[in-house]
Amino acid sequence: METAGVIPAPRASGSPVHGAVSVLPGLYVSEASQWLSTSSGRIALEGYSWMQAVHWVAGSGLYQPRRHRSHGPRSFGLTTVRVAQELAALFPCRPGIEYLVRRTGLSERSVEYHLGMLREAGLLAYIVRGTRVSGKAARASEFARMIPVEFDGALGIRTALRDEAAPAYTRAMTGIAEAGRELMAKLAKKAARKVRKPRSKTLAKGAQKGSAQGDVTVVSDEARCTPMQVGSSTVSSAGTTSFPPESKLASGEAKSPTPKKSRGKAGGRRKLNVVGRRYQLARELTQELDWLRGCSVPRIAWVARNVADAGWTVTDVKGWLHLRGEAARVRRGSGLLAVLLSNAENVLDTPQKRADAVERWRGAQEAARRHNIRQVRARTERYERDWEAPSNRAVRSQVEAAFAQVREAANGGRHQHRAVDDQAAPLELSKQELKDLRAAAAGELMRGETTLITSMAPDMAARIYGERLVRRARQLESGFRSSLMTYGHR
């Protein structure tokens, strides 16, 4: 029997020690709810806020993998957090198993276990599930980084939908309870630090033994490779230690051989420089514009360097491309973008001008959407409305005679003697009328319509329209029932 996890609620300043607790059920998301469309969580806007939720799940103990499977890791620990760190740096989140194996040093099976744990904890949701077909290249799965509803409930986070028509997973954070601010600050510090692979026990014992004997010195907390060495080294000989000259010691200018680590603000994010903004805009352009997909991001960053330096966003670029006009056929996306963005930063040199261009682009998109809706509606009404009689008088009389014959047959075959008159009726038509009838039928056949010919009896249709048109109508009728042929109007 599963027990509920008890998490002490963070208390505000001045609150008593024995505060209230928040009792939450165990975390577990079934396989059917591990998709973005069926998930109950919300999408994390960036990797930093998502890592806060990851550290909360790791520290809460609400998710126990062994409650739901008999194999794999026993707990949501540091290894799972390391895998989550690699996912937080990806945009879009489309990690391959080989990529995670190379980045984390884990085995393929271990990577699959930890990805499954992140999905079961409600932190990941499938957007597209990868495929592995024999003889073809494997396709990686694409995930959405999710924040579980249990996280919002434990910290008192308030969320709301910016657009009522949008899905529930697009809701955004609008506030947080006072009791959850202290815990959120702690999670922010954890999310700002990078969890590294722990040292092996053999390395730790060797470091302790060396420090006890005094003949070795630990270089760093972790075995790393430096640009000045061929390989990694964990110890250094005391005899090869280099000391500063006496002149430096006398002047007091000696510096420690071990550089000090810079301490940044906890939870702060590094501000992008000029080159970083160029690459960010280029990456967004290759994802948003279809005709730039597959282009080199460094090349697009160089092409869009002027607008990126002017503070343009990808939305501003779309508004300018709408004003400038896009080509229907693109052979080289980077070259076309260079032509279209020429002198753009000088034409739209103020934020107001760029905002006006964006509004015009959005208005054109809305007009195109409404036009498509009207076209679909008109096409649907055209094919689903009631049948209309032909405008040609001779054709209309023949159709009415055919309908009368059908009604007489449905009434038990009364007035059978009129069939002789109907068969003789085509002979009374003039040559011009027969020519008009056949021309009208041929025009209908060109548009894929066979009603004029198939609505009559076969012998009557053959006398009026001729064997060639009747045979063509039968061919079209047989083609309508085939899934390999499609008929329509232009």
Architecture blueprint of SSEs:
Blueprint: E1 5-8, E2 21-24, E3 42-43, H1 47-60, H2 78-88, H3 97-104, H4 108-120, E4 124-128, E5 142-147, H5 149-155, E6 157-160, E7 172-176, H6 181-192, H7 201-213, E8 216-218, E9 235-237, H8 246-251, H9 274-288, H10 297-303, H11 305-309, H12 314-324, H13 333-340, H14 344-347, H15 351-384, H16 393-410, H17 418-424, H18 431-446, H19 451-454, H20 458-465, H21 467-480
Antiparallel strand pairs: 1-2, 3-5, 4-5, 6-7, 8-9
Helix pairs in contact: 1-2, 1-6, 2-4, 9-10, 12-15, 18-21, 20-21
> Strand portion, in percent?
5-15%
Which class of secondary structure composition applies to the elements?
mainly alpha
Strand order in space, largest sheet: 3-5-4
Helical proportion, percent range: 40-55%
- Rounded to the nearest angstrom, the radius of gyration is 37 Å
Count of strand segments: 9
Order of helices and strands: EEEHHHHEEHEEHHEEHHHHHHHHHHHHHH
Low-confidence stretches: 1-23, 207-242, 248-254, 414-427
Biggest sheet features: 3 strands, antiparallel
Number of helices: 21
Mean of residue pLDDT values: 76
Q: What is the total number of structural domains?
A: 3
What is this structure, in a nutshell?
The protein is mainly α. 48% of the residues lie in helices and 7% in strands.
What characteristics describe this protein?
mainly alpha, 21 helices
